């Protein structure tokens, strides 16, 4: 190479190096730009794939349609304190819940999401006190609120999980996830302008406000406002709102009985719950129930021990009732939400001689049991020779018809503790049962969407359940083996 060609070669080499460097830089910039764009799009539109067996973080068409129809801003807050991977003490992963909330935010421009730590700002959640009707904000919860309606709902792991009683371990275990159902119904509730009410009767020694605070809190979570009413002139009762009578200690007057009958004849719905310690003689209350073919037996229903699944633990007076298949309980049975707990129950009798205009059905039954007569100072629940035995109705529904039109509906339940004990709500499907009973009364209802819960247990592997990816992983090696045999067999003698 001569001297004139050397500089030219150096310039060409430098040009190649500069071009290579430029291409490398542009490639890196393009790579990082694409990565940034993909990350931004994934965060904005929640595009991450869900490969879980139950598609936990994905939403149904019902939720998508509901969120697309929102016409007012909704704020969602994920409030946390602990550093564990789970949401509170539940099996629900916090990362899964965060992904679900991000997918909700991506489905509607009306939704905003914010995560807050109550450790760094412990008083921050007090801003929701009025919206939650004084309900205290717990650790690890989701708050959904609408500033325009000034309504909010707090959701905890109790709302997100479904429990089932395991007979082998004698404990309640998580059977399904209801995160989507709880979130979507909360959004519909807070964005609505009206709140259905439930009337709680007072004036006859019924349970006090302090004794029904748990019930009222769960009514609020279900979308109802609890209103305490009296029967001074009967005008305060609204047939459009269900009425609950819980453990009255004093009887109705004749005028009050007429007002209650008028309320039912106008299409009202009544839930009457009692305790085995309540007075045996309340003639006008019992007359009201007998008008619908229902009566309450005296005493306490005690499991006889033969059916171990009909009572809880070692307490034969704490019954696990058998839910009956009725139009009102069909949804609960279909979703496996049939586990209830009734500590100390009176039996309900459906009269065979009731009026022909009244239709009555059993809602809950005991297992094999006996009816122990109750008296003050009773020392034992052991069966006595005079105690009747058999299978007893523990709750029943009766509805009166006139010219094929439904009029009043009465639900009688021989146990009021199931409505007032927080432990029962937390460990059974009492919330779902309460909502089903209020729905059965045919009055104004809070939103209840047809969103299925998602199983917490993977179903057994079947050929029909294999995905295309699994089939490909199985079939590709087989196809390669067949191809190899097709090539090698003709050459086996070479």
Characterization of this structure:
By secondary structure, the chain is of the alpha+beta class. It folds into three domains: 39 residues; 169 residues, Glutaredoxin (3-Layer(aba) Sandwich), CATH 3.40.30.10; 251 residues, Class I glutamine amidotransferase (GATase) domain (Rossmann fold, 3-Layer(aba) Sandwich), CATH 3.40.50.880. Helices cover 32% and strands 23% of the residues. It contains 13 helices and 23 strands. The strands form six sheets. Strands 8-7-9-10-22-21-18-15 form an eight-stranded mixed sheet. A hairpin with a 2-residue loop joins β13 and β14. The protein is elongated. The relative contact order is 0.11. The model has no long low-confidence stretch (mean pLDDT 83).
């Amino acid at each position: 190479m001569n001297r004139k060609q050397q500089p030219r070669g150096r310039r060409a080499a430098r040009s190649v190096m500069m071009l290579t460097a430029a291409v490398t830089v542009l490639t890196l910039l393009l790579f990082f730009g694409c990565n940034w764009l993909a990350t931004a799009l994934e965060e904005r539109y929640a595009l991450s794939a869900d490969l879980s067996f139950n598609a936990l973080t994905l939403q149904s068409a019902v939720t998508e349609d509901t969120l697309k129809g929102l016409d007012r801003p909704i704020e969602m807050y994920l409030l946390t304190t602990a550093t564990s991977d789970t949401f509170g003490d539940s099996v629900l992963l916090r990362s899964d819940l965060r992904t679900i909330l991000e997918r909700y935010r991506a489905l509607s421009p009306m939704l905003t999401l914010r995560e807050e730590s109550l450790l760094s700002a412990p008083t921050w959640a007090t801003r929701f006190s009025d919206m939650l009707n004084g309900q205290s904000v717990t650790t690890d919860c989701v708050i959904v609120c609408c500033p325009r309606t000034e309504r909010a709902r707090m959701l905890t792991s109790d709302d997100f999980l479904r429990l089932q009683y395991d007979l082998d371990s004698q404990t309640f275990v998580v059977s399904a996830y209801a995160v989507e159902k709880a979130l979507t119904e909360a959004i519909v509730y807070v964005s609505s302008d009206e709140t259905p009410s439930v009337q709680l009767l007072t004036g006859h020694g019924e349970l006090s406000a302090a004794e029904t605070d748990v019930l009222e809190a769960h009514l609020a979570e279900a979308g109802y406002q609890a209103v305490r009413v009296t029967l001074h002139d009967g005008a305060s009762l609204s047939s459009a709102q269900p009425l609950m009578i819980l453990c009255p200690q004093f009887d109705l007057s004749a005028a009050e009985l007429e007002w209650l009958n008028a309320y039912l004849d106008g299409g009202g719905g009544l839930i009457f719950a009692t305790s085995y310690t309540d007075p045996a003689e309340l003639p006008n209350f019992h007359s009201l129930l007998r008008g619908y073919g229902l009566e309450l037996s005296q005493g306490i229903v005690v499991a006889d021990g033969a059916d171990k699944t009909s009572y809880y633990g070692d307490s034969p007076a704490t019954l696990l009732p058998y839910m009956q298949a009725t139009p009102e309980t069909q949804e609960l049975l279909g979703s496996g939400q049939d586990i209830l707990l009734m500590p100390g129950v009176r039996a309900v009798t459906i009269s065979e001689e009731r009026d022909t205009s009244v239709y009555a059905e059993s809602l809950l039954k005991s297992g094999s049991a006996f009816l122990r007569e109750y008296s003050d100072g009773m020392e034992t629940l052991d069966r006595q020779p005079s105690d009747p035995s058999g299978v007893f109705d523990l709750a029943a529904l009766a509805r009166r018809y006139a010219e094929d039109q439904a009029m009043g509906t009465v639900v009688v339940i021989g146990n009021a503790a199931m409505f007032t004990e927080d432990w029962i709500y937390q460990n059974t499907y009492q919330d779902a049962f309460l909502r089903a009973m209020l729905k059965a009364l045919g009055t104004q209802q809070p939103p209840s969407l047809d969103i299925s819960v998602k199983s917490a247990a993977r179903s057994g592997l079947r050929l029909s359940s294999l995905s295309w990816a699994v089939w490909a992983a199985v079939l590709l090696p087989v196809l390669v083996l067949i191809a190899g045999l097709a090539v090698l067999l003709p050459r086996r003698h070479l």
